[in-house]
Amino acid sequence: MRVRPLRIEGAFEFTPERFPDSRGYFTSPFQEEAFAAAVGRPLFPVRQASHNLSRRPGVLRGIHYTATPPGGAKYVYCPRGKVIDFQVDLRVGSPTFGMSDSVVLDEAEGRSVYCPVGVGHGSVVLEADSMVVYLLSQVYVAANELAVSPLDPALALPLPPGLEPLMSERDAAALTLAESRERGMLPDYATCLELDRAPAFV
C-alpha cells in the first residue's frame, strides 16, 4: 500500500497493490496496518457503508460535511468508473482552512481517500456509470448533513472543462465557504481534532 499525505492536514491518499490474473484481478482498497501507520490510530468504527452510482459524466456531488458535533469522517474509493474526488478543509482555525485538494479515483488504480472530521468531500464524474463507496463513522442523519458550493470560486476546484455539471437541488443551492463561515455553520478545528481522537474512533 502506497500512502501519500494530501495538502489538507490529516487527509491521506492510499493506493493498494493490484494482483491480476486470467480471471481478472484482486485488490484491497483498505488495509488497517497502512492506515494506522499514516493516521496514527486505527480506522474509526464503521457505522455505515454507502455507495452512489452516477449515470453520466459531469455529475457533481458535494461539497458535503457533517455538523460538528457529531462530526463525521469518511474513507472513500471508486470500484467502478472514474471520478475526481475533492477534499476541502472546512475546519475554522485549521492551518489548512479553506484549502482544497483532489485525487483521481478509479477502478484501474484503486486509490482511496481518507477525510477526517471537518473535511468536506465531493466528486465530479468522468465516466458513465461510475460508483463511489463510502465507509462512514456516523449513520446518515439528514438534519446533520450540510454542503458548501463546489462552484465557489474561492475553492477553485479543478472541474474538467467541457463537462456540464449535473447537481442536486441541495448542492446547487449550497452556500459559499465565506457565507457558511459568516453564518457559523462550519466546524471548529479543535472540536474536530477532539472528535477524531475520541474513544469511539479508536
TrEMBL record:
<dbReference type="GO" id="GO:0000271">
    <property type="term" value="P:polysaccharide biosynthetic process"/>
</dbReference>
<dbReference type="InterPro" id="IPR014710">
    <property type="entry name" value="RmlC-like_jellyroll"/>
</dbReference>
<feature type="active site" description="Proton donor">
    <location>
        <position position="134"/>
    </location>
</feature>
<dbReference type="GO" id="GO:0019305">
    <property type="term" value="P:dTDP-rhamnose biosynthetic process"/>
</dbReference>
<protein>
    <submittedName>
        <fullName>dTDP-4-dehydrorhamnose 3,5-epimerase</fullName>
    </submittedName>
</protein>
<comment type="similarity">
    <text>Belongs to the dTDP-4-dehydrorhamnose 3,5-epimerase family.</text>
</comment>
<dbReference type="GO" id="GO:0005829">
    <property type="term" value="C:cytosol"/>
</dbReference>
<dbReference type="InterPro" id="IPR011051">
    <property type="entry name" value="RmlC_Cupin_sf"/>
</dbReference>
<feature type="active site" description="Proton acceptor">
    <location>
        <position position="64"/>
    </location>
</feature>
<feature type="site" description="Participates in a stacking interaction with the thymidine ring of dTDP-4-oxo-6-deoxyglucose">
    <location>
        <position position="140"/>
    </location>
</feature>
<dbReference type="InterPro" id="IPR000888">
    <property type="entry name" value="RmlC-like"/>
</dbReference>
<dbReference type="GO" id="GO:0008830">
    <property type="term" value="F:dTDP-4-dehydrorhamnose 3,5-epimerase activity"/>
</dbReference>
<dbReference type="Pfam" id="PF00908">
    <property type="entry name" value="dTDP_sugar_isom"/>
</dbReference>
